[in-house]
Amino acid sequence: MAADFETQVGIVGAGPAGLVLAHLLRLEGIDAVVLEQRSRAYVESRVRAGVLEQGSTDLLIETGVGARLQAEGAVHHGVNLQFEGERHRIDFAELTGRHITVYGQQEVVKDLIAAELADGGTILFEVADALPTALTGDRPVIRFRHQGRDRELACAVVAGCDGFHGVCRSVIPPGVLTEYEREYPFGWLGILATVAPSTEELIYAYHPRGFALHSLRSPELSRLYVQVDPHDDIENWPDERIWSELQLRLAAPGWTLQEGPIIEKGITAMRSYVCEPMQYGNLFLAGDAAHIVPPTGAKGMNLAIADVAVLARALADWFHRSDRRGLETYSSRCLERVWRVQDFSTTMTELLHVLPGHDPFARKLQRAKQRYVATSGAMRQSIAENYVGLPLS
What we know:
Elements: E1 5-6, E2 9-12, H1 16-27, E3 32-35, H2 40-45, E4 51-53, H3 54-62, H4 67-72, E5 74-76, E6 78-83, E7 86-91, H5 92-96, E8 100-102, H6 105-118, E9 122-124, E10 128-133, E11 141-146, E12 149-154, E13 157-160, E14 178-193, E15 203-206, E16 212-218, E17 221-228, H7 239-250, E18 262-276, E19 279-280, E20 283-285, E21 291-292, H8 300-321, H9 325-328, H10 330-352, H11 360-375, H12 377-388
Parallel strand pairs: 1-12, 2-3, 2-13, 3-9, 6-15, 13-20
Antiparallel strand pairs: 4-8, 5-8, 6-7, 10-11, 11-12, 14-17, 14-18, 15-16, 16-17, 18-21, 19-20
């Protein structure tokens, strides 16, 4: 029985990983179909990460989807780390010659969807029950339900870009994957507020009451976070309490935190996760489907983009030159970066958060590390190099 659709690459998930992959493949003349469980309106409004490494920014601009990013993104040449009221700037420009750009993940998604549809690409939204099958053969099939009908998409390769809770990783047989996971005993309560940011660059703050972060989304929108119990109920956090904690934890001499109406808030648990390998037969996992990093290092979206940059090159080599070496080494190449990023994100998390039950000895060690950041050029260099990101190549 013939499939309803045929393509070269079937992509499950229309987040940054899936959409950047579809975009890169289209530039290589490779056909792809993207299947997304949610509606277009949902994925374009879902607020997630907001920091792009320079390598990610350069890739989007060089491949033709960076016009709005260049016009509206905020280029930052440094970041502030604050320990108990003492603020220390990490100067990216001086230490690395590179920068980051603050531009919301949902904006990246909007740009990619618009470009893909304008150029004749296929994205099917509100797809239910997607299930990749026949993954070890040369003609995998993705079964799914769309607009009330059961359908099939035949392809040569399946890209699992459907996130940590997606289906693609779960169809890999037991015993194939080795999974590494750490759950943290705290979460982030994040808010989006309609108030101009009180800072020109991000502020990461350690305080004895817990971590806080002042980020930004636009000249009119601020994104802020406070460390909380991951099992806490958001109803226990009225707006007044949130602003009170932010005022306390972010306080610094000569600086004022401006408050405004909170239009969105929620609590997110934190975890680290990696599965090895990131491939099985003709299924290749990318982004959160293969790994999760704590958000302290601002790496989630960037790591997803790095994965698919590798995968797109490998697929181009296969489809155009019958060279499978890139596909065979996809997992090992990506995992080298994944574990570097896990190390950096964990280091930043342990440097800036109060751990429940923190014993005095551990607190003294943490304080020594914080002082080292404040006084060591070598330590600031390391943080700067990791924060702006490894080259995509």
